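Dear colleagues,

As part of the handover before I leave the project, I'm documenting each prediction I ran so the next person doesn't have to rerun anything. This entry is a single chain, and its sequence is reproduced below.
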Amino acid sequence: MKIRRVYEQLLKQEKRTVLRLKCLSGATAFIVFSVFLMMFLGLDVVRKIAKGFSFEKGVCVVQESSFTGGNVSCACGMHTCCSKYPCLRVLVKMAAKSTEDVGTSQPALLHNTIYDLGSECTYGPPCQPNYSDNFASVLKYKNSKEKRENPESFQCYFNPNDPTEVILDKSAHETLAFHAMFWPCSAFITGLCILLKTYYMRKAHKKQDVVRPQDIELEETLHTSNNNICNYHLVKSYRQ
């Protein structure tokens, strides 16, 4: 009876140990994933979003728009698909306020969004497997800008620290900013909650994991007493 009791306790303790190890592994995976995700998003997405908020409103006039003659590679879809699109450069003259003369400014390369900065091309279309579709998308963008080649200016945004950085669309990217912060924080908090759950679970089961001799002796005493009582009633009923 004692051996059986010890075996049951050890088996229960082993199951709890395996469960704790699984919880620790899951918590570690969540925390490591959140750290890498936060580093990636912090270095790329969040940095560009923060930079976009510093751009100020200005006015631009298209000076020239032309194809460079080269193509830019792009990845299309979730599959291993590679395509190309023509490189379009749109040069504009920019002024900080509508009252200023844009003709006195130096030409700058216009980019479509904050994410296109650093590229030699103005516009990168949504990549399609077919090159003709990409060409049509870039050509449509080019034609829309050429319609603005008139004395009237249009709104654009520029970096006050570097006037050569000019973008057409300054979006706060609230959704991207939310996802960039929400998912890493959620993964980190989930991992932390699993760690705390594992800690308190171990603390609650710590006493139960220890096989105490007095508990075994008490169980043996109760078992013996129950057997004696049963035997007494059997003998008594037999004599009657």
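The CA atoms of residues 172 and 240 lie 95 Å apart. Helices lie at 2-43, 45-53, 131-146, 174-209, 213-239.

All the best with the project,
I.
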